[in-house]
Design a protein that fits this description.
Largest sheet of chain A: 2 strands, antiparallel
Largest interface: A-B, 40 and 59 residues
Distance between the termini of chain B: 64 Å
Shape of chain B: elongated
Order of helices and strands of chain A: HHEHEE
Number of strands of chain B: 17
Number of helices of chain B: 13
Number of domains of chain B: 2
Strand order of the largest sheet of chain A: 2-3
Oligomer: heterodimer
Helix content of chain B: 25-40%
Structural class of chain A: alpha+beta
Largest sheet of chain B: 9 strands, mixed
Radius of gyration of chain A: 22 Å
Order of helices and strands of chain B: EEHEEEEEEEEEHEEHEEEEHHHHHHHHHH
Low-confidence stretches of chain A: none
Helix content of chain A: 25-40%
Mean pLDDT of chain B: 93
Chain lengths: ~110, ~475
């Protein structure tokens, strides 16, 4: 079962990844096939494990102020800033639709 | 025309009242220099990890208990992915699969036909309460076509309270939120001040004909006060009804409430249905809560949240406080409502009662009809009242001892309101407002009036 172009396009939109070429898509297919092996195990009546940390204790922190006050350090990473604000584009710039962008997926 | 049944559900985000954030040690404070209350974790710098704040867990448990929820002894954290400039990590840590509390209820009261004396109690089911991170703030600069981002709010702890669609109009939604606000403030788990963004409400609205399936719902955002909540919900109900009666359809969309125009408009930047790709938060083990029975021996209590310990220390909720006021002072239920509805008013009332011989049933009239209307006229809070409970009690004592009349008392109060430091007795003497008790003196005054109005007296006697 191949992953459809619609799903690949959807993933590129959601995660802003670029499958780039046939090799990239094949790598994804292989990863899915690998993960699908899980379905071969009979898990009837078994609680799913969703974290290897499930037996660990979740550490609880005291409600004290111990961090912050490092505006300058943080803003050093900003490409653009205005006073002490980070600058971002006016809104999300959506990835253009499949027909409108140059992507290997077009040809598939 | 077949009747329409409106259906209203609410998603409420309450900022947790804590010193530091949900997963980091930076400070929680409204209005601080931009990006000054931001830790490396809040800015999503690589190599940082979330560390859960115990106070936030306690706040959520308290709130869950107050709303009659089942507290999940094991709850989980998840990542909700979406891109926005004020969400530096590209995901929000929330509790989508197993939240901390579920299946509760909230009782609230409505006046029938705006008559305080006719109150009806309604209930709304609480689907769940979950802990999650707040996002930063975006300031849109349209002139320069850019957005300025302040991450001070990013990572602040939120309790999301989901109310089932058991409400049917703006008034019910507003009353439910108001009661929730009072409960949160009583618990101290959130200060719940809508104007400061500590309480945000989104409404889910749909309409359908009785007996038919629920209609398509819209989500209404950008509601900044309880009054606007009622307006937004009622507008949206009307809009949907009109649209459907004109043969149109309702889109499953997000709309913003425009307070100036009093209507809802479609929100830009919300393209279609979002796929949040929920996944377990890999850096946080499950959150385990204990009660007296399950508490393991030899535990460090800093590392343990005990549901029973929290339950024992819950303060009286508003509904309990109201019932106690009615019982203790013999006032009416609607009086207790009005007392709790104004910050500090109950305390003021109780202080006056303590210091006066006047019966609480009479005092309440002075508090609710006279004092409160003065405060409203001058836009003052109870704490800002120029007349203290001591002064008011003093005045009411004069009235109770029949040294002045009720009318005179109101005049004295007007003087006291000026806050010039005079006592009620001083004002009474100054303005000669004392009631005359002496029979002879009264006769003399009456006689003088009659003597001065000879013609009118003759007319009266002749009939």
């Amino acid at each position: 079962q191949k992953v459809t172009v619609e799903v690949l396009d959807h993933l590129e939109h959601l995660a802003l990844v670029d499958f780039r070429d046939a090799e990239g898509v094949e790598r994804l297919q292989k990863a899915i096939r690998f993960a699908d092996q899980l379905r071969e195990v009979n898990t009837d009546g078994v609680e799913p494990m969703d974290s290897v940390l499930e037996d660990r204790c979740l550490y609880l922190r005291e409600d004290d102020v111990t961090e912050g006050n490092c505006t300058n350090e943080l803003l050093k990473n900003a490409r653009e800033k205005v006073e002490e604000y980070f600058v971002a584009p006016p809104g999300n710039i959506p990835l253009p639709k499949l027909e409108e962008r140059e992507t290997f997926l077009q040809g598939s | 025309l077949a009747p329409w049944v409106p259906v209203v559900g609410l998603e409420i985000h309450a900022q947790i009242s804590s010193n530091s954030k949900l997963f980091s040690g930076s400070q929680v404070q409204f209005a601080a220099p931009p990006n000054s209350l931001v830790s490396f974790f809040d800015a999503s710098l690589p190599g940082t990890l979330p560390v859960l704040n115990r106070r936030c867990v306690e706040a959520a448990v308290m709130t869950g208990l107050a709303l009659n929820c089942s507290i999940n002894k094991k709850s989980l954290f998840d990542r909700k992915h979406y891109f926005y400039a004020d969400l530096p990590a590209g995901y929000q840590i929330t509790q989508q699969r197993v939240p901390i509390a579920v299946n509760g209820s909230l009782s609230y009261n409505l006046c029938i036909d705006n008559k305080m004396s006719q109150m009806v109690t309604k209930t709304v089911r609480i689907k769940q309460i979950q802990l999650e991170q707040d996002s930063g703030k975006s300031l849109h600069d349209d002139t320069r076509s850019q957005t300025l981002v302040d991450l001070n709010r990013a990572g602040v702890g939120l309790m999301e309270v989901v109310m089932e669609p058991d409400m049917c109009c703006g008034e019910e939604a507003a009353a439910a939120v108001r009661e929730l606000q009072l409960i949160l403030q009583t618990l101290g788990s959130s200060q719940a001040v809508m104007a400061e963004g500590q309480l945000r409400v989104d409404a889910n609205v749909s309409v359908h004909h009785p007996g038919e399936p629920y209609g398509v719902r819209t989500e209404v955002k950008n509601i900044n006060s309880i009054r606007f909540l009622a307006k937004a919900v009622d507008y949206e109900i009307q809009r949907q009804i009109e649209e459907l009666e004109n043969g149109g359809t309702i889109l499953n969309e997000t709309r913003a409430f425009d307070a100036k125009l009093g209507c809802t408009v479609p929100m830009r930047d919300k393209e279609g249905k979002q796929d949040y790709r929920f996944m377990p938060e890999p850096n946080l083990p499950p959150l385990i809560l204990y009660d007296a029975k399950s508490l393991p021996a030899n535990t460090n209590h800093q590392q343990v949240v005990n549901i029973d310990w929290i339950h024992e220390r819950l303060p009286d909720l508003p509904s309990v406080k109201r019932a106690k006021l009615v019982e203790q002072y013999g006032i009416l239920p609607e009086h207790s409502f009005a007392l709790l509805n104004e910050d500090g008013l109950t305390e003021f009332f109780e202080n006056v009662v303590k210091q006066t011989q006047m019966k609480p049933k009479k005092v309440i009239g002075w508090i609710l009809n006279v004092l409160l209307s003065y405060l409203k006229q001058h836009s003052l809070t109870v704490k800002e009242s120029p007349v203290s409970s001591f002064l008011l009690a003093d005045l009411l004592n004069l009235l109770e001892k029949k040294e002045i009349s009720s009318t005179a008392a109101k005049q004295v109060l007007a003087e006291l309101w000026k806050g010039e430091g005079k006592t009620p007795l001083e004002i009474v003497k100054e303005k000669k407002l004392e009631l005359i008790q002496d029979q002879k003196e009264l006769e003399q005054i009456c006689q003088a009036v009659i003597d001065g109005q000879e013609n009118e007296v003759i007319m009266m006697v002749l009939g």
